[in-house]
Structure formats: C-alpha cells, structure tokens
Design a protein that fits this description.
The structure is a single chain. The chain has 7 helices and 18 strands. With about 300 residues, it is of the alpha+beta class. A hairpin with a 2-residue loop joins strand 7 and strand 8. Helix 4 packs antiparallel against helix 6. The mean pLDDT is about 95.
C-alpha cells in the first residue's frame, strides 16, 4: 500500500458579497474524485463552514451536456441543493476557466437536484453571477399562532396580510413575514423549538422576512436560523422567497430586487432576486450576487 499523501487544493470564498469577510463562507475543493463519501463528509466537518463543495471533473462533452458535477455537504449531511454553494462554486469554475477575466459566460452545475445554470456578467466592475433555480412548488400554509410559539414571538409580531407558506425550489422553506424590522432584529429563537415544529411540517427551515429594511435600497431584509446557529445568506431560501414575494404582490414580477441577510450577525449579504409569471404559475426564479475569494490552500490526507 502506498504511503503517498493526497494533496487536495481548495479555495474559500465569501458569497453574496464583494467585501471580504462578509457574506456566507464556502470551501470549494477543485477535484474530489479521489474521495469517498465518508471523506467528503469528514472534510466538510473539518472546514466547519455551513457548506463545502466538491467538484468532480468529467470529460468535456459530458460537462457541456449535463454540467459540472458538484456535491454539496454541510458539517453533518449532503444536500441536494443549496444557493450560496451553487453561486460560489460556479464563480470558482468561471475564474479558473477565464483566468479571472470579466467576460460574460455561463457555468452549469450538475447537482443532486439536476442541472442549475449560472450566468455571469459584470456589475460595479466585478463579475456577478445569477443562477436560475427550479420552478417553485407552493406547499403547506402555516398558522401564525404555531409559528409564533415555535419562534418565541407573540402573534402580533407576525404580519397578518401575507400567508406563511412553504415554498421550494429544491429545499422547502416556510416564508414568515414579520410586522417590522424591530421584530426581525430581536429574533432569537431556540433551534430545538423550531425543529420540534418543523419536524411536523413539510418545511425544512423557517425564513423570516421584513419589508422594513435598514438599507433603503433593499426591498426585503431576512434572517434564517438552523442547527449551527444563524445563516448569513441562504440562496436556496432566496429563490422561494422571490417566488412567494411575486405570488403575493410584495415585489413586481420580473423586477430584480435586493434583499439583505446576515446584517445582525455582521456578515451582511446582498442577494439579488427576481421571478416571473407565466399564466398562473411563478417561473424564471433567479438569484444572484457577487463572490470574493479569501483563502487558497490544500488539505493533505
């Protein structure tokens, strides 16, 4: 048996930001073909970030047809889809292919949910990526009383003019509209209470949304809590949020708007999204932002 060590290059990026040390962190391994599922999961636990991705290169013809194969892991499980890992990994692939040039292009990822394209342009002098997510599924509507109890709120903290509804473009999130920015800012739910409620529903997480924002340029401000604490940017919730917001008239169809997340935890994320109408369906869900590289290195196994 060979004692030769494997050297596994990776980069770490901050996603949904152009400012280093803001946005949501992601580790991207350039070539995971030598790794077992167990090793991928162990490496994701070792990076201790909310998500880690592994690129699995294939021949050029397959990648043109199906996209670049990528797997996404949290510290505890593999995910079929996640937003900031999709955008961040696509940006890493784009930069590697283009040598950092800012030419517009498309990178498609082959994820466990299927093919997700990410289109690049230039905004504010920097590459800017927009992913097209799957068409949304609108699911269960939740009661204000039960959500308030689970989140440690009173019922009047939750807006009564919009439904709390589970929406999915790959991961199911229950959209929870709050009455004010002040309610959003003081949120401090216990994950055990949220999980006890979520385990009885069709939603994986709750996504708290305020129509009042700190930044006047932002249309919405949001927060998301999960087992590791709080998430500074949740791209797989931003798509469902776009669909929900267009469906119920919070934002106009086909208009790109800015939503900010992570403000309260001092990792501000700037998430741009849009969605359109086709008959009575919501389609063309797009979520985008900037990505900045902050770390480059290698693991030795």
């Amino acid at each position: 048996m060979s004692n030769q060590k494997r050297r596994l290059p990776f980069v770490q990026v901050d996603v949904f930001t152009s400012v280093p040390l803001e946005g949501n962190q992601l580790a991207v391994f350039a070539d995971g073909r030598s790794l077992t599922d167990t090793e991928m999961q162990a490496l994701a636990k070792e990076t201790n970030l909310s998500e880690t991705t592994f690129i699995l290169p294939r021949d050029a013809a397959t990648e043109r047809e199906r996209g670049v194969r990528v797997r996404i892991f949290t510290t505890t499980e593999e995910l079929p889809f996640a937003g900031h890992p999709t955008l961040g990994t696509a940006m890493v692939l784009r930069n590697r292919a283009q040598g950092g040039n800012n030419g517009a292009e498309e990178v498609a990822l082959d994820l466990n949910v299927g093919r997700i394209p990410v289109r690049f342009s230039t905004r504010d002098g920097l590459p800017f990526g927009i992913m097209t997510q799957r068409d949304p599924e609108f699911k269960h509507k939740h009661s204000r009383e039960e959500i308030a109890r689970a989140a440690g709120l009173v019922i009047d903290d939750i807006a009564d003019d919009l439904p709390i509804q589970t929406v999915s473009t790959g991961n199911p999130f229950a959209m929870v509209p709050l009455k004010s920015l002040a309610v959003l800012q003081r949120l401090s739910p216990a994950w055990a209470n949220l999980k006890a409620y979520l385990d009885k529903t069709d939603a994986k997480f709750l996504y708290f949304v305020s129509r009042e924002t700190l930044n006047p340029d932002a249309r919405l401000q949001s927060r998301m809590f999960f087992y590791n604490g709080e998430d500074p940017a949740t791209g797989s919730a931003a798509g469902p949020c776009a669909a929900w917001a267009v469906q119920y008239g919070v934002v106009p169809a086909d208009q790109q708007v800015l939503m900010e997340q992570g403000v309260e935890m001092k990792r501000r994320s700037r998430i741009f999204f849009s969605a359109g109408h086709k008959g009575d369906k919501i389609v063309n869900v797009r979520v985008g932002g900037h990505v900045v590289e902050v770390v480059r290195g290698e693991f030795i196994l």
